[in-house]
Amino acid sequence: MKLRTRIIGTLLAATVAFSSIASAKELRLGLIVPGSHAWSIAATSMGEELEERSDGKFSVSIFPAGQLGSEAQMMQQLQTGALDMAFLTAAELTNRITDFGALFAPYLVTNVEQAGELLSGPTAQSLLNRLPRETGTVGLGYGIAAMRLMLTAFPVDNVDSLNGRKIRVTPFAPVQDFYQVLGAAPTPMPLPAVYDALANGQVDGIDADLELVWKLKLYERGETLLYSRHMMFPVVGLISGRLWAQLSEEDRALIAEVAKKHLNRLFDQYTEIEARMLAKIQKTEINVIEAGPEFFEGKLKQWEDIWLKKSSVLADLRREADKLE
Ligand code: BEZ
Q1: pLDDT tens per residue across span 185-194
Q2: Whose CA is nearest to atom 5 of ligand 1?
Q3: Which percentage of the chain shows pLDDT scores above 70?
Q4: Numbers of helices and strands, H then E, in the chain
């Protein structure tokens, strides 16, 4: 009996060793943002640290600017195992798990540091825990982009200036609902298409952030920058669930630790990035207008009513956010 147990044990150990990755592995990582964007830079430094700490067992090849397709396509590739890793917007995850949409509640946080605290809290972390079962991917951690604002090709005096205007939005429901309640005509469009759409008048304005306005040269096509900081814009580091299943506990722990570290660093970096981008944009012809929640008058309440029905975690997130400094 003892011998049989030992043989079965040996066979099991051999199977685990066979199924876990033993030789060097190049991890392919996709992003929708350009190579100069802070997310791409974070992915590159993550890859360097992973290669060093795994003694060359893991390396990371970065595919920015949607080279591997849209975020929806990259998500599918992660699910089939055709792609190993991606840094995807929480917007794309909202298209799979509606509750992620609560992270985009207007004025849930006022700056990127608060965003970091909220995303490290229990409700945001519990959303990550749902990814394996509901999407077949594993969430390694959150990062952030700059706070959202509007760049318009027309003057803006008050919220009524947006009435009927075609505003480019990232293709997902929370931001479409936001512009709908503002009386604008939200026009869903992925990031790589934005410059041309603004240049050829397909849209009258865009929902974006300071980094995109500067690095994609969108300021060349705008007239007013409504510096509203109305939403945070989280990114999630993902790894294919199929690949994850083949990794040893030790490899999983290393990848998870290094990915989280480089994603979380974005919370600190964006305060400086936002200040630097704003200073550059202020030197252009663009008219920068500061705006807070009062600019939107009673419209924010309408968004809240819609999303309290759509998402069961919004109320919890608001409670956690109320406690932030
Ligand atoms: C956007 O759709 O506006 C977006 C996508 C990725 C990063 C930042 C913004």
Answers
A1: 999 999 999 9
A2: 191
A3: 94
A4: 14, 11
Evaluate if residue 85 carries a pLDDT over 90.
yes
Nearest of 78, 80, 117, 56 to residue 237 by alpha carbon: 78
Atom of ligand 1 at shortest distance to CA of 191? 2
CA 310 to each of CA 41, 116, 177, 314: distance values in angstroms, whole numbers, following the listed order = 35, 24, 11, 9
Q: What is the distance in angstroms between the CA of the first residue and the CA of the last residue of the chain?
A: 63
- Dist. CA 321–CA 305, nearest whole Å: 18
Show the ligand 1 pocket: residues with CB < 6 angstroms: 32-33, 89, 145, 170, 191, 208, 212, 233
Indicate the DSSP class of residue 220. G
Cβ contact 270:235 at 8 Å: no
Beta carbons within 10 angstroms of residue 304's beta carbon: 17
pTM: 0.93
Which 3 state secondary structure label does DSSP give 186?
Answer: strand
Task: Give pLDDT, residue 10.
Answer: 44
| Position in ligand 1 atom list of the atom nearest CA 145 | 8
Q: Give φ, ψ of 223 to 5 degrees.
A: -125, -35
Q: Regarding beta strands 25-30 and 58-63, do their DSSP bridges make them parallel or antiparallel, or are they unpaired?
A: parallel
At residue 19, the pLDDT reads 54
| Residues 6 or more apart whose Cβ sits within 8 Å of residue 4 | none
